[in-house]
UniProtKB/TrEMBL annotation:
Taxonomic source organism: Streptomyces violaceus (Streptomyces venezuelae)
InterPro entries reported for this sequence: Myo-inos-1-P_Synthase, Myo-inos-1-P_Synthase_GAPDH, NAD(P)-bd_dom_sf
Name of protein: Inositol-3-phosphate synthase
Superkingdom of origin organism: Bacteria
Region Disordered, annotated ranges: 375-394
Pfam families attached to this UniProt entry: Inos-1-P_synth, NAD_binding_5
Family the UniProt entry places it in: Belongs to the myo-inositol 1-phosphate synthase family.
Domain Myo-inositol-1-phosphate synthase GAPDH-like: 209-313
Amino acid sequence: MSASLSRPRVGVWLIGARGSVATTVVTGCAAITAGLHPPTGMVTETPAFADIGLPALSDLVFGGHDTLDCPLPKRAETLTAGGVLPPGVATAVAAELEAADREIRPGGPTSGDTRSETELITAFADDIRDFVHRHELERAVVVNVASTEPASQGPDAPPPASTLYALAALRAGCPYVNFTPSEGIHHPAAAREAERSGLPYAGRDGKTGQTLLRAVLGPMFAQRALRVRAWSGTNLLGGGDGAALADPAAAAAKNAGKERVLADTLGTVPEGEVHIDDVPALGDWKTAWDHIAFDGFLGTRMILQTIWQGCDSALAAPLVLDLARLTARAHEAGLSGPLDALGFYFKDPVGDGPSGLAEQYEELTRFGRNLGRADEEGHGVGPVEHPDDVGEAL
């Protein structure tokens, strides 16, 4: 069947396309499409999101940027050996992994790269446009799943790589999702262009483990009128994320979102900090421990401790697929600006919205219902044309 007669397809352009999360996303999407595994962890595959016009998993086409050159099939083998991917799955979807790997383009800036910021943005945007054109895609969503960058050095600091990729997404006319704590579209230059572009965007920092629990437990203490005195946490993790977060500046960017959830749900900031320790032997697995000291009736002092042990990539991958589908549908429906309702997925969401998980889920399901009614109410469904001068002000 020719491309023109087939169902419209949607691109998912991954920044950090050869990392653990991206590899798990591509492998998982192919495995679910082939019927090898159920879509466990994908909220968009639950009944609440049926029949709202989301692109089918089988209609997603993957590509991306990365500075690494390890092919996706080889990366999948490594993840299988580490217990991240089930045995045999990577082999069964090898063709899909190879197809996605052919669509990965060199990222940057790399050591010795003499291109200016504007030249990098132009090159990245051209790669995305070429991907959309060659595959005759209806639209594409750019999702940042690269390693965490150090925290911003202020509005006058040069834009980091994540911001260059965000500006490239806007120039290419693509919605943007930041699944990392990196600055991305939050940089003033990118924020201005995002507002001007008329594109939808979401982020930042996917909520997969420790902060997910905090978004549930924080409201519980507030609703039961229990006074939290201290809340301390420790994270042990390996892999690329562990190595990146060994940098105190990167860890600070990560912890900002964790602290925001407590401040918003408790109405105050309790004593205590979050510590992140790089343990290379853990690979893609992580352990998060929280120690919560609180006062009950008549000042009785009590303690709650939680331990979360999980596989970071397996926790993140279904959320990335959800976000790509929901953001693509929002773009199709003509929505623009920050997608507040996707705060359910993030530690530090853009826009305004609740911080408690239950309220965030209500917002998300309401958003889904509105997307389902968008075509009936006559919202625009075509891609938006965008100027080519994004990034010129850098």
